[in-house]
Design goal:
With 210 residues, this protein is α+β, with helices and mostly antiparallel strands. It folds into two domains: 1-68; 77-112 and 123-209, Aminopeptidase, CATH 3.40.630. The protein is 48% helix and 17% strand. The protein has seven helices and four strands; from the N terminus they run αααααβββαβα. It has a four-stranded mixed sheet with strand order 1-2-3-4, covered by helices on one side. It is elongated. The two termini are 36 Å apart.
């Protein structure tokens, strides 16, 4: 997805189209040799673009190595302190793990107006409370759009209600929060994050109405 965000960014597309049109105008005079020269130029440009994209994606290598490791699972989170051991919920299809959600039970400061927050006593309105914090949520690409991710979120909402926890909420430093790319390429990821938070709120509301 990060590579697509770069290659299909409006600015990159505009520059690429301009390059191709300019090369046609400058190089093509009607001969076969001009066509071969243009094709070689386009291939060279494409290879250069792919090398630039590969270089820009190097930052994700460190993220991939860190996220999901034991140090990451046991490390501190900026969203909640005094955490317990992380819990991992999995979804399976035909015996294969196709979806994972990492849940942390931690004391966190939550707003009384936030969805999923239990009623507070007047004496302890400002105290941190045990909250379900989602640190990671993913489904294998080939199994997406089948309701697996929805099922994982629904299960974790029910789990928090059963254990009288606040939330669940997404951690501020969740697995996909690190964005190594320049800001101009992060629009698609920001939209995806907003969608995920809104989708979680919908599930919490649906559980409330039952």
């Amino acid at each position: 997805m990060a590579a697509k965000a770069i290659i299909f960014h409006p600015l990159i597309l505009a520059v690429s189209i301009l390059f191709f049109l300019t090369s046609v105008k400058l190089l093509y005079t009607g001969s076969l040799s001009d066509v071969i020269l243009m094709m070689s130029t386009w291939v060279g440009y494409s290879v250069m673009l792919l090398l630039i994209v590969k270089s820009m994606l190097r930052g994700y290598s460190d993220v991939i190595e860190r996220v999901g490791s034991w140090p990451w699972l046991s490390g501190n989170s900026i969203t909640g302190a005094s955490h317990k051991r992380d819990e991992i919920l999995v979804a399976k299809e035909n015996g294969e793990v196709v979806g994972v959600l990492v849940l942390r039970i931690a004391k966190a400061m939550t707003s009384p107006d936030m969805l999923g927050v239990r009623p507070r006593s007047s004496r302890r309105k400002s105290s941190a409370r045990w909250t379900g914090i989602i640190r990671a949520w993913t489904v294998k690409r080939t199994y997406r759009f089948r309701g697996i991710g929805t099922r994982l979120l629904t299960d974790v909402v029910a789990n928090c209600r059963l254990r009288t926890l606040d939330g669940p909420i997404f951690a501020d430093d969740h697995a996909n929060s690190v964005k190594p790319l320049p800001m101009m390429f992060n629009t698609v990821f920001e939209k995806q994050e907003k969608w995920a938070r809104a989708f979680l709120e919908q599930i919490i509301l649906a559980k409330r109405s039952r």
